[in-house]
């Protein structure tokens, strides 16, 4: 004689069997908090990695926060308000020079050139750098990479920033484009997409690229405290692997498709402008194609800082740069 299971017991047993199966399909992801120095098309590979699910594939849940300033990124890292920072490598040198007991280590390069362009208020058919002499130049904040690279390039072309032009550096980063639009300056140093927007609107004309002029430099890198990297080596490896996948995807993908992928991060920017800016950065090799920050780039950075009078102390490549992780994921 068959014995039938009671309905209530059968229902309970079904839940017992289903819950473990559901849990297997919903593996908990590890949260990583990133503090980025600004929101910029210059960082397209990061947003592409998020859009294409490369971090998710590695079991990482990325919490991205824009903190608007290199000093604020460092504060977030040092106070454990963020796990990883995206900022210029010069900030790690500043922290190191202050005698930090837990230095900030560069482990994944994102951009390998300066990302600014020289924009003229008036159209210039045959531009030459000596045309900046005696002009009013709206530059970037003193001590930051844009300003240091800007001065490095000007000196390279025989222009003394302090004596050969009227250099304005007292305007906050976020307000530089507004100041130029309001009539301040004959030339301005701008990132994308603002440079392309001004050109499209007829408010300015791109006449030169500081990135092309300054050569390879670790302009923006991912970095973390040494203690975090030692305690979370597998996590950093997963992060770097996702970054490398994104860098390869960007290198192999046309500007339009990249623009479509990153558009959710730039809702107020037209797709046409996004595509134009991405294409400009791709064509001049601004996006690093792998995460390795090599010694030549590191030395170029310190030369630029030294030229600008902003290098507090010379730091060996191996002191603040870890290439082991990048080399591992690339192999």
Automatic annotation (TrEMBL):
Keyword vocabulary terms for this entry: Signal
Location, primary (coarse class): periplasm
Cell location: Periplasm
Keyword flag Nucleus: no
Family that this chain belongs to: Belongs to the bacterial solute-binding protein SsuA/TauA family.
The protein, known as: ABC transporter substrate-binding protein
């Amino acid at each position: 004689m068959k014995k039938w299971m009671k309905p209530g017991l059968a229902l309970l047993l079904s839940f017992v069997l289903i819950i473990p199966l559901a849990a297997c399909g919903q593996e908990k992801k590890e949260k990583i908090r990133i503090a980025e120095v600004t929101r910029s098309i210059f960082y397209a590979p990061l947003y592409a990695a998020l859009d294409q699910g490369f971090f998710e594939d590695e079991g990482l849940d990325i919490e991205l926060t824009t903190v608007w300033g290199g000093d604020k990124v460092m504060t977030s890292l040092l106070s454990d308000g963020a796990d990883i920072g995206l900022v210029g490598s010069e900030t790690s040198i500043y922290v190191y020079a202050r005698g930090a007991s837990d230095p900030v280590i560069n482990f994944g390069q994102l951009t390998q050139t300066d990302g600014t362009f020289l924009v003229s208020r008036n159209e210039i058919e045959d531009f030459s750098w000596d045309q900046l002499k005696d002009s009013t130049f709206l530059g970037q904040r003193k001590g930051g990479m844009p300003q240091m690279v800007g001065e490095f390039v000007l000196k390279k072309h025989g222009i003394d920033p302090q004596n050969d032009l009227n250099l304005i550096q007292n305007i906050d980063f976020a307000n530089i484009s507004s100041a130029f639009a309001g009539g301040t300056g004959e030339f301005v140093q701008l990132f994308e997409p603002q440079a392309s927007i001004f050109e499209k609107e007829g408010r300015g004309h791109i006449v030169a690229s500081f990135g092309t002029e300054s050569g390879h430099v670790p302009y923006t890198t991912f970095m973390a405290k040494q203690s975090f990297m030692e305690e979370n080596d597998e996590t950093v490896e997963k992060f770097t692997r996702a970054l490398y996948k994104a860098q390869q995807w960007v290198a192999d993908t046309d500007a339009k498709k990249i623009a479509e992928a990153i558009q959710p991060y730039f809702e107020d920017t037209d797709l046409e402008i996004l595509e134009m800016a991405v294409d400009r950065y791709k064509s001049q090799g601004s996006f690093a194609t792998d995460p390795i920050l090599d010694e030549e780039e590191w030395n170029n950075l310190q030369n630029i800082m030294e030229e600008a009078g902003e290098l507090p102390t010379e730091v060996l490549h191996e002191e603040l740069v870890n290439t082991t992780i990048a080399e591992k994921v690339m192999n």
